[in-house]
Amino acid sequence: DFERPVVLSTEPGQLKANRSFPNPFSNSTYIPVEATLGAGINVEIYSAEGNRVNVLNELSFFEDGMGFTWDGTNAAGARVNNGVYLYKVRAEGTGVLKTGKLILQR
Question: Is residue 7 exposed (0-12), middle (13-18) or buried (19+ Cβ within 10 Å)?
């Protein structure tokens, strides 16, 4: 259910994350989060083979919340191939808080 947040950590605060949308996606996808943590949050994108593709450090703020947008590019800015990608939402000093799957179909 896209509307129901998942509580991922309770110490020292909380992080809630919904599934990314749209998913599958063709241009970009949004990974929403709700955080009450005092730590920096980022999202790491991995290929299905386990290779890190990109790290999203810029949290975007929107009228209905905050989250990360991935445009289907690698760390060098080049478009990646169609396929399945995995993401990890991390908070500094607390480890992996949320994982999910993204499907890129251009």
Answer: exposed
Whole-number Å distance between alpha carbons of 45 and 43: 7
Task: Say whether 97 sits in a helix, a strand or coil.
Answer: strand
94, containing H or E segment: none
Distance CA 49, CA 8 (A): 25
Alpha-carbon span 29 to 56, nearest angstrom: 12
Length of the chain: 106
Distance CA 91, CA 73 (A): 22
Instruction: Report the candidate in 7, 60, 14 with the shortest Cα–Cα distance to residue 39.
Output: 14
**Beta pairing class for 65-70 and 60-62:** antiparallel
Residues 29-73 pLDDT 10s: 999 887 665 567 889 999 999 999 999 998 888 777 788 999 999
| Residue 106: both structure tokens together | 């251009």
